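Lab meeting notes turned into a lecture example. A postdoc, R.K., suggested we walk through two folding results consecutively so the class can see how the record format repeats. The first protein's sequence and structure tokens come next.
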Amino acid sequence: MDRAQKEKLVDELGQIFESSGVVVVAHYAGLTVAEMQDLRGRMRASGASVRVAKNRLAKIALEGKPCAGMGELLTGMTVLSYSEDPVAAAKVAEDFAKDNKKFEILGGAMGETILDRAGVEAVSKMPSREELIASIVGCIGAPASNIAGAIGAPASNIASILSTIEERGEAA
């Protein structure tokens, strides 16, 4: 890799560290190519990504970033999992770690907050952005449907009473 390629990679990593909702660092020594492809596929399906980079270049990219403290985690064969959604990459990494003992989560970062192993696990248990939006919409939608039902019910009651009165008047 020549100097220009390294500078480009450092810029890309810097953008990842700045724009990601969460970055998870893990050791991947011993994983087969098929297992790494499985990890990449799972990440892609949830809107997250995986990046393997030299630790030295990643540490350079971290300089001056809010999550610069994460540099301590970059030792050995590390892989970075990241997503804009603050939960997606952590969830997939946790699920993958359960299935693959060779994939060892070290920690990560969520904005300026540096996460240890337990922190990544806690983030993975949080509801995702889509789950939160669905629950909020459900809370907002329920009262509106109740109001519509309450407003519509008296009108139907009045209509049935009027039709009953009309039928009695015709019968008499």
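The second example is placed directly after the first for contrast:
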Amino acid sequence: MNISIVVAQKEHYAFAAEICDTIETSALQRGTGIAKRTPEYIQKKMETENAVIAIIDGKFAGFCYIESWQHGQFVAHSGLIVHPDFRNLGLAKKIKTFVFEYSQRKYPEAKVFGITTGLAVMKINSDLGYKPVPFSQLTTDPTFWKGCQTCTNFEILKSKDYKMCLCTGMLYDPKEKQKNPPKHPFNVRIWNRLKEIKQALFLKK
């Protein structure tokens, strides 16, 4: 099995529709909200070298893209996905690590953040040195939050004045980086409980 993780280029345009379908199908299967993206949007990320793709034996295996906000002060990694045919290979962490290191080179001064409901993504972020933070510490750029409008949980976010949702905010600040950055222990039991509490509060009739 030949695994290649690279910065996506125009030669990968052909995978854009499959990437969008895989992201949406995965979200529906998990029952989680996700902001939808079009093939044209994915291709634009490839054109500007703000996307990473994993290819295995010539087939699309995984993907993630970079977004920058407030003139590069903040960077987010979005759309992290692994194709069902290539799961359980540790590929998600490899892609996330690659895009994390790549974005630090491309945007060395930026704070790296993300919002997610996925425990697997939270675990990967925690291992990379992210820490959970309130939404107030994330970008204030309205364009970022506008991207949540296609998420099934958008009404919850809007009702909480964009300060809270089912997603958890996580942040990596390069200014706090040390030679051996301390990791923030990820306890699945605690995060599952937090998720249950949020769902009980926000999804109650």
